[in-house]
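Tip: read the tokens left to right.
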């Protein structure tokens, strides 16, 4: 049985092109597409519920974050992936906080798209930022390596998984920016990632940071 995909994007050329690409992948089928948040919510109400929903971050009427929040609340079994033109940490983190389990840039290579969809379907998430993604065998949270954090690291992590800049995080914690850099590098190493977004995705996946 093929994995059912939905796409929400207000740029119809991209919407149709991505739909065509997904339909060409052997394990997937395009079940539904929509041009904005209102459109997809109406189609979901009518029973067109995909396994995975790709959601554009920037849309009129209901933006990607609000759309993701609503879908996550009403259709919790639907796995969501954020689509964005730019690798903007704050925007992507907001989508992750809203319930997305992965993000993809719109210029993603078809091979990575297929890999991401497969991982989201089987593992429930996809983090391209993980150094060893695709090489580690997925295990349950109860069996995976436990990450031990200090109270200050937990505070930093919570603030880093928001739309604050690192400078603002330093001010909030009453620390120097150099000290904040130290926390960041320590957590990158503990989570085995190389970016703020990768760290946020791992933190949310491990329930170290709560969804909105």
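Filled-in amino acids:
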């Amino acid at each position: 049985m093929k994995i059912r995909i939905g796409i929400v994007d207000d740029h119809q050329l991209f919407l149709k092109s991505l739909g065509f690409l997904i339909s060409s992948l052997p394990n997937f089928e395009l079940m539904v597409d929509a041009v904005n948040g209102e459109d997809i919510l109406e189609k979901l109400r009518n029973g067109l519920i995909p396994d995975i929903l790709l959601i554009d971050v920037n849309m009129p009427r209901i933006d990607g974050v609000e759309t993701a929040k609503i879908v996550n609340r009403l259709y919790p079994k639907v796995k969501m992936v954020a689509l964005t033109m730019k690798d903007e940490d704050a925007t992507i983190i907001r989508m992750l906080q809203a319930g997305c389990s992965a993000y993809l840039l719109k210029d993603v290579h078809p091979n990575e798209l297929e890999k991401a969809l497969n991982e989201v379907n089987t593992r429930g998430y996809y983090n391209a930022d993980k150094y060893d993604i695709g090489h580690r065998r997925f295990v349950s949270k109860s069996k995976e390596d436990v990450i031990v954090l200090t109270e200050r690291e937990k505070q930093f992590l919570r603030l880093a998984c928001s739309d604050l800049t690192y400078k603002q995080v330093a001010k909030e914690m009453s620390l120097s920016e150099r000290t904040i850099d130290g926390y960041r590098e320590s957590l990158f190493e503990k989570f085995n990632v190389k970016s703020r977004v990768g760290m946020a995705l791992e933190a949310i996946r491990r329930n170290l940071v709560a969804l909105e």
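The first helix runs from residue 12 to 24. The chain has two domains: 3-123, 131-212.
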